[in-house]
Amino acid sequence: MSSKKSSQKPLIALTPYHNTEKDEPYMRPAYLKAIRTVGGTPIILPLDLEQEELERFTAMFDGFLFTGGPDLHPFHFGEETQLHCGNVSPKRDRLELELLKLVIQAKKPVLGICRGIQLINICLGGDIYQDLPSQFSEDFPVAHTQPFSYEIPSHTVTIVPDTLLSRIAGIPAIQVNSMHHQAIRRLAPGLTASGLAPHGLTECVEMQGYPTFFLGVQWHPEYLWEQDETAKRIFSEFVKAARQH
Ligand SMILES: [Mn+2]
User: Fold this and answer.
1) DSSP state for residue 71 in the 8-state scheme
2) pLDDT bucket at 6, cuts 50 / 70 / 90
3) Ligand 1 center–CA 30 separation, angstroms
4) CA 5 – ligand 1 centroid, Å
5) CA–centroid distance, residue 144 to ligand 1 (Å)
6) Which whole-number Å values give the CA distances from 183 to 59, 119, 125, 135, 152, in the listed order?
7) Which of 96, 115, 125, 245 is deepest in the core (most CB within 10 A)?
8) Residue 176: beta bridge partners?
9) Domains, the chain
10) Which pLDDT belongs to residue 4?
11) DSSP assignment, residue 21?
């Protein structure tokens, strides 16, 4: 709805979580609260959109938030299922991979969180560690599934200069929370890693030359923004881009 009046709040589409046992879509309220706080209207998508609906929704919404969630099926990046791979949702995989392709074609603002950054990388031709503890060994293993509350940061992310993340943060490093057992391995063509965990694990990606906001983060800013300026600015810059689109 790019013809909307500037006084209207931008419409932000959120991809739903999926309870695969009950086959029910659901949403974590923290995402909705974060989008509302920075002036956007969050709208949760259904899981079972048809292609024609996906195309219409791509044109309708002003920004797209790809939320956290379970693992992506390894077939999407050409691998067999590793011993410690977690649960998957074929419905979510399909919805999000199809939607992201259309959104990138339409050059609309994109924010990917946790599963969302992995989705971005896989959609563009990269791959991921299916299970960090068994596939990424370190002398001092950093906890990427932290043993305490989501509101408390657990590891550092070093920011690459002259990137969107560096402009958002304005400082060379930030402290983030960590609740992922998968992570980017081989970066997709066209993506830049702009935030790195200790030992070099990719925690933030962006697309050079994308005409509007495009950011994937491995951490969960929706649990940090009340006390963390960078987390809040990730949402406010995303919604600002959606407003201007
Ligand atoms: Mn992490």
Assistant:
1) B
2) low
3) 19
4) 39
5) 4
6) 30, 10, 14, 10, 20
7) 96
8) 155
9) 11-244 (3.40.50.880)
10) 56
11) T
